[in-house]
Design a protein that fits this description.
Elements: H1 14-17, H2 20-34, H3 41-48, H4 52-58, H5 62-86, H6 92-105, H7 109-120, H8 124-147, H9 152-174, H10 182-192
Helix pairs in contact: 2-3, 2-5, 2-7, 5-6, 5-8, 6-8, 6-10, 7-8, 7-9, 8-9
């Protein structure tokens, strides 16, 4: 016989105005500050000024919240970045430059990336997902380098080197280091494209006499 559960009571006051996104944002702050062990219902409720009951109104349980964190990270920091860069230009070189601009100017990226990687180091399931996303990101850079004229055998190694530089930058900034300036990233990109054919010059406009 199916077991019937009593209907949920609608939360009151501030709790009623909270959306799942509010819990997700608070969870990100706790993850960045104290790691995955800090992402717990009571501290989140206290941060938001509501009771634990409000959490279970909006989110099934802590495991669902952790899954939502991973989904949000993949959607914004990988799929969203790729979509943004692909829409910026048809030129592979310009898309590579835009990729570096976007990934090095995101203020939340260093803390988020460091927290996710620390989490993946102690959680096999998260580690496997992180490895898949790392591979997806590197392959995207590799394909852009190939499209710009770099041989595939070279592009694979250069994509790994560029990705490791970005991850190292995130780790450095997350631990208090100053962000690297855009001139350094531009120089790195130029070196990665040094043996690629130069893009065709834009046609000159003829002046009307």
């Amino acid at each position: 016989m199916e077991r019937r559960h009593p209907p949920k009571r609608a939360p009151r006051g501030a709790a009623a105005q909270l959306a799942p996104e509010a819990w997700l944002a608070a969870a990100w702050e706790e993850l960045a500050r104290g790691g995955v062990d800090a992402v717990r219902v009571e501290p989140l409720a206290a941060r938001l000024g509501v009771t634990k009951g409000s959490f279970y109104w909006h989110v099934r349980d802590r495991a669902a919240l952790l899954d939502a964190l991973l989904e949000d990270w993949e959607r914004r920091a990988t799929l969203g970045v790729i979509a943004l860069v692909d829409g910026a230009s048809e030129s592979p070189r310009e898309r590579l430059a835009e990729l570096l601009r976007v990934t090095t100017k995101a203020p939340e990226a260093p803390d988020a990336e460091s927290a996710i990687r620390a989490w993946g180091a102690h959680d096999e399931r998260v580690g496997a997902r992180l490895a898949r996303i790392d591979e997806q990101r590197e392959r995207y850079v590799e394909d852009l380098l190939v499209a710009a004229g770099v041989r595939r055998s070279h592009a694979r190694h250069r994509a790994r080197a560029l990705y490791l530089a970005l991850i190292g930058e995130y780790a450095r900034v997350a631990h208090g280091g100053a962000p690297t300036g855009p001139a350094t990233w531009s120089e790195l990109l130029e070196r990665m494209l040094s043996d690629a054919p130069s893009p065709p010059a834009a046609p000159r406009r003829r002046s009307r006499g």
